[in-house]
Write a sequence for this structure.
């Protein structure tokens, strides 16, 4: 589940980069306009205004996952445990 969250986050960034022709500053603005928080964007981008560069910060991503995605991880574990119970 943990790795799936990394992949999901990366795909969101990659979608924005593809949509903007690889322009990192435009991808940043695209994501911002579509409701992504500054906290999320700081995981992948560094810079100011139209001078954004791609800068992946795994430590920030792990903090973000623990803060916002922890419940999704817990739910996945509960579902997995239900399937393991003898019938």
């Amino acid at each position: 589940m943990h790795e799936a969250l990394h992949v999901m986050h990366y795909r969101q960034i990659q979608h924005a980069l593809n949509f903007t022709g690889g322009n990192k500053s435009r991808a940043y603005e695209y994501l911002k306009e579509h409701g992504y928080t500054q906290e999320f964007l700081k995981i992948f981008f560094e810079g100011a205004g139209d001078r954004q560069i791609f800068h992946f910060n795994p430590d920030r991503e792990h903090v973000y996952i623990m803060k916002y995605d922890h419940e999704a991880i817990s739910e996945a574990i509960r579902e997995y445990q239900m399937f393991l119970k003898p019938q």
